[in-house]
Amino acid sequence: MSFYQDPVEPKLMWLGSENGLYFSLNSGKKWHHWTHDIPNVQVADITLQEREGDLVLGTFGRAAYVVDDIRPLRALAS
Cα–Cα distance between 38 and 28 in angstroms, integer? Predict the structure, then answer.
């Protein structure tokens, strides 16, 4: 399991689990399963590529995935 809190918008949180990637726009009060372009795979590591605003995911036994430009989600969380 992995957890990442956005440094720019602290209400935006990411959780990697055995069942994929989840995110919250309200400081963890409600979580949503991220299903866009990422299979149902264990997400072991989460980090941010700051210049482009991309979320980089390391998975167990599959690959690395990139969630392109999380800035629109930051706007929703603010």
Answer: 21
Three-state DSSP class for 33? strand
Residue 64: helix, strand or coil by DSSP? strand
How far apart are the C-alpha atoms of 33 and 16, rounded to whole Å? Answer: 10
Nearest 5°: phi and psi at 33? Answer: -80, 125
* CA distances in angstroms from 69 to 54, 56, 61, listed in the order given: 5, 10, 25
| Structure-block tokens of residue 27 | 């400081």
pTM beyond 0.70 = yes
pLDDT in tens, 33-68: 999 888 889 999 999 999 999 999 999 887 899 999
Rounded to whole angstroms, the Cα distance separating 9 from 72 reads: 11
Report whether 6 contacts 23 (CB < 8 A): no
Q: Phi and psi (nearest 5°) for 70?
A: -85, 5
